[in-house]
Amino acid sequence: MQGAAHAAGRACVFILSMMFRELLMPVFRGSMQASTQRRGHGDALGVPAQNLCPGWRLLLLICLLGCALPVLAAPDWKHWQAEFSRLQRSSLPEEAVRAQFDTLKAQLPPDPPYAVQRELAKVRIQLADTHEKTSEERKALRELALRNGDRDTAYLMQIGDIFDSHSDDNIEVSLRALDQVRLDTHSVSAEVRETMAMAYAYMYWDVGSFELALRHLLEAWNLRREVEDVDPALIVERAETLARLYVDMSDVSQALVMLDRADRDMPSSISLRQRTHLVATRGAAYRLSGRVKDAVDLMLPWLDRMPKGDPTNATQRLRQELARAYLQLGQAERAKAVATAMIDASASGSPYFKAEGEILQGAADAALGHVDAGLATMQIGLDYFEKAAHIVALQEGLRRKVEVLSAANRDHEAFVTLKKQHDLVLRMYDSNRAHGVASLQVEEGIARREREIRDLSSANTLQQARLEQERTRNVALLLASLLAIGLVVLLALLLYASRQQRKALWKDALTGAFNRHYFPHWLRKPRQHAGMVRAVALLDLDHFKTINDRHGHAAGDAVLHQVGHRLREGIDKHGEVFRWGGEEFLLVQDLPVQTDVEGWLRGLLGAFGPAISHAGESLQVSASIGCVLIPISAKPDANTFECASRIADLGMYQAKTEGRGRAVWLVMTDAGNNAWPWIFNITSDTVRNWQAKGWLDARTVLPQGQR
């Protein structure tokens, strides 16, 4: 913006100087000449008479103004970029932001540069009112960024799409997609790495993997120092998010540390929404630390400041924490009033808080003596959380239901609900089994609750024994027997599940091959033998989606199972097969230096010769393979294998380009070996560039009998 202003100023000075020199000075000189002539000195000043004619000077002035007008009238694009960027960070209501955006868009000059188009597209994404519209706008911005060489923005859009499309009950699909983006990103900005860390954190948080969520949140917190022009309000938001996670982890001291830091760094421009979130999180921390009265005194005046019926998430969180505090204080009437306000406000807001309000309202009704009605209301909220796969909220709701049932001496129903809560905890950790086994704290928490329920049951049994001693004795024996059997069965199931998880941690159950998470551990073991060279091959099944679409996913699973079996048979003790993702397999094989690599690849292709039988049908499957030999001088570390796998990936795509059902061996020359390790970005011309440098030669290998 300042550069454009300086350029315009210089143009104005230039035009004025030319006008003064060509118009005013001749007039001044003409008057001096006339005076001299009157004194009898003729043309003493040396100014020719024709210079007094102004016609050509007027023409020159018009030309100068015509040249300067484009400079003076050129749009200040930096100003427009700043305006659209300001809208993204605005704390105004959405309606006001939309109105300002429409006004700016109507005034925007034609043909804006990419930087302005990018900021404009970001505002469109922010204002999109449906998931489909958001995804469409992100796709458009990603394509625009790729056309302009902006990899960072393209990655940001891809990460946003992955996060928005994830679901708690199938989180592994989104995590694998995010892992793939992480593998593809090299030398990206701190903003991309921070956004990726936040996406990981929220997804792990959603399924209850708090430790993993905390690790990624702290990573994002540390990366904020590297982000250019970071918004101070964003730093406060990150601190509040960390504090909220610490609250969910019951680490109140750390939560209060982060909240104090947020208060200290809070800018004057912070929005009311962010301030409300900070108050709600601090109230939750006070409540968990036993300062329930302080929590109420903090949140109640703040809630009174908010518009009645406000459906925003920040205000709903404030109502949620206030209702919980009232329940903890035993003030069920007030808790019910706040919970009812949550439900009413959710008519035009999030159904999540409607379900939270129903659970809290039901708990308040139960505390007021209306146990059955309260449990029915709670079940409505629990049903929504179960259907929407909000696992953490469902677990908290079940915990509160167990408390209500225990207080009402309904032990059998409490046991049933506790079992469901236990199953949900196992499901939370099973969905993340590729990233670690379940924490023993889960089992300890269940055991603690079982002891509490068992103690309560014993107390009730002793009380009933005074009235019906014989009947109570029989019931107690039966209950003890069932409890013992249940504990034995539960322990056996836990031991069996633990063994199965340990066994399957590094194995892909469908193909029998190792999964890609085992690959870094496999690399740590020295496996290359003297006199041998290591081949890295990346294999992708051709038209696999067609098999799924035409014959069903069961047929696709049968193909993957059979392919994994055949590939493992084709690899000897000096190699290994990894399922790299989807229908891709990575093969690593140590071969004798003088081996026939083309023959080895032909053997791999031959494994796809026999058809695969499924449900009475014969499925003919082929594969495209890319292969490269790692230079003997290269270090057998992760960087070497990453470079080699990317080269093999290029070979695989060249095989697909040439017609599929073949292998492309990228043979490195002496020049290529000397240039190792290669540093490159993958483009459509990468292989041709390497061939032009004389680094490698591409050899196509067809199955036996084909030419």
TrEMBL record:
The chain crosses the membrane at residues 475-497. It is an enzyme of class 2 (transferase). Residues 532-668 form the GGDEF domain. InterPro entries: Diguanylate_Cyclase (IPR050469), GGDEF_dom (IPR000160), Nucleotide_cyclase (IPR029787), Rev_trsase/Diguanyl_cyclase (IPR043128), TPR-like_helical_dom_sf (IPR011990). It catalyses: 2 GTP = 3',3'-c-di-GMP + 2 diphosphate. GO terms for molecular function: diguanylate cyclase activity. Keywords: Membrane, Transmembrane, Transmembrane helix. One of its GO terms (cellular component) is plasma membrane. It comes from the Bacteria. GO terms for biological process: cell adhesion involved in single-species biofilm formation; negative regulation of bacterial-type flagellum-dependent cell motility. Its EC number is 2.7.7.65. PANTHER family: DIGUANYLATE CYCLASE DGCM-RELATED, REGULATORY COMPONENTS OF SENSORY TRANSDUCTION SYSTEM. NCBIfam families: GGDEF (TIGR00254). This is diguanylate cyclase. It comes from Solilutibacter tolerans. The lineage of its organism: Bacteria, Pseudomonadati, Pseudomonadota, Gammaproteobacteria, Lysobacterales.
